[in-house]
């Protein structure tokens, strides 16, 4: 018989969900039981009860330990979301009891930080200065993992990098423009237009292979008939990129245009007039389907969607 919601709701225990998460992390019943402060026999019985309830085995046992099967991956993913949502509920209740304004955790790609996220958070904090905020900057793929695990309320990034983009709500915000940048003292000519061939003599700072701007640079060099630089300096940090560009006039790199503009205004970098041929990637607001947002997170989403059209654009109570 197929498991029903009534069966699961009537018999499921939060500790069983926590045990699943521990098994996924440790791949060992003994270690998972120790992490849960349970005996191994109690952990084994709890897992058997859960598998019986769902009428499906969740793990495969091998010499490398316990590995979740297709059923296990599905249940563990939802277990992480449920446990995270319960934690968020407790935090929000505690915040209300303490008279604070709650907490919002948002993930963002680098290019959305200066012109999208920073003004939105400023508007949110102006209305609710007591609100606690957490911001994580990373690639869209990594941020979606944190969103799935319940560590983030929303992401400003791309849902299409996921193998299952249909699991998310997505609201586009704009295109991530990219600029070619150098330090202020770089010898590149200050002409009306440059091509990648004009930069052949300079050394590139590139990004780690899993980052979108690595692929973007590779496409642009291919289109220019050039090879990817073998002697490139590779990093995943915008701070390292800017610091190295400032310190070495022979370097050149890519940065999201909004980030580049910020450092240009501070007279730390200059943008070269190089026109990129690749289509710029769209980014937007990503939230989990079926997952509820706190009042504060809903207000942040409203501010982002309103496009920051003034202080009253998305006001409301948190």
UniProtKB/TrEMBL annotation:
Which intervals hold domain HTH lysR-type?
Answer: 12-69
Alphabetized Pfam families for the sequence: HTH_1, LysR_substrate
Q: Which Gene3D superfamilies match?
A: 3.40.190.290, Winged helix-like DNA-binding domain superfamily/Winged helix DNA-binding domain
Native source species: Cupriavidus taiwanensis (strain DSM 17343 / BCRC 17206 / CCUG 44338 / CIP 107171 / LMG 19424 / R1) (Ralstonia taiwanensis (strain LMG 19424))
One cellular component term from this protein's GO annotations in UniProt: cytosol
Q: Which GO terms describe its molecular function?
A: DNA binding; DNA-binding transcription factor activity
- Give the record's family classification: Belongs to the LysR transcriptional regulatory family.
Name used for this protein in its record: Transcriptional regulator, LysR family
Keyword Nucleotide-binding among UniProt keywords: no
**Which keywords has UniProt assigned to this entry?**
DNA-binding, Transcription, Transcription regulation
Q: Which SUPFAM superfamilies match?
A: Periplasmic binding protein-like II, Winged helix' DNA-binding domain
């Amino acid at each position: 018989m197929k498991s029903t919601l009534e069966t699961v709701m009537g018999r499921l225990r939060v500790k069983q969900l926590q045990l699943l998460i521990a098994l996924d992390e440790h791949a060992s019943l003994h270690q998972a039981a120790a992490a849960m402060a349970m005996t191994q026999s109690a952990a084994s019985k709890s897992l058997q009860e859960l598998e019986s309830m769902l009428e499906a085995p969740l793990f495969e046992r091998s010499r490398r330990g316990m590995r979740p099967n297709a059923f296990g991956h599905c249940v563990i993913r939802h277990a992480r979301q449920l446990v995270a949502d319960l934690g968020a509920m407790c935090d929000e209740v505690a915040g209300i009891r303490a008279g604070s304004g709650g907490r919002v955790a948002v993930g963002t790609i680098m290019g959305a930080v200066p012109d999208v996220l920073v003004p939105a958070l400023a508007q949110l904090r102006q209305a609710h200065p007591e609100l606690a905020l957490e911001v994580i900057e990373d690639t869209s793929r990594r941020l979606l993992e944190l969103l799935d695990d319940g560590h983030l309320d929303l992401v400003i990034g791309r849902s299409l990098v996921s193998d299952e983009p249909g699991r998310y709500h997505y609201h586009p915000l704009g295109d991530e423009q990219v600029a070619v940048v150098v330090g202020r003292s770089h010898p590149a000519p200050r002409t009306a237009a440059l091509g990648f061939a004009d930069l052949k003599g300079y050394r590139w700072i590139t990004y780690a292979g899993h980052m979108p701007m690595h692929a973007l640079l590779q496409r642009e060099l291919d289109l220019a008939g050039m090879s990817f630089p073998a002697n490139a300096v590779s990093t995943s940090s915008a701070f390292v990129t800017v610091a190295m560009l400032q310190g070495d006039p022979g370097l050149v790199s890519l940065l999201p245009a909004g980030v580049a503009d910020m450092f240009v205004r501070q007279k730390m970098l200059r943008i070269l007039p190089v026109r990129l041929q690749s289509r710029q990637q769209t980014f937007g607001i990503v939230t989990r389907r079926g997952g509820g947002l706190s009042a504060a997170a809903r207000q942040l989403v409203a501010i982002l969607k309103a496009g920051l059209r003034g202080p009253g654009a998305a006001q409301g109570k948190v």
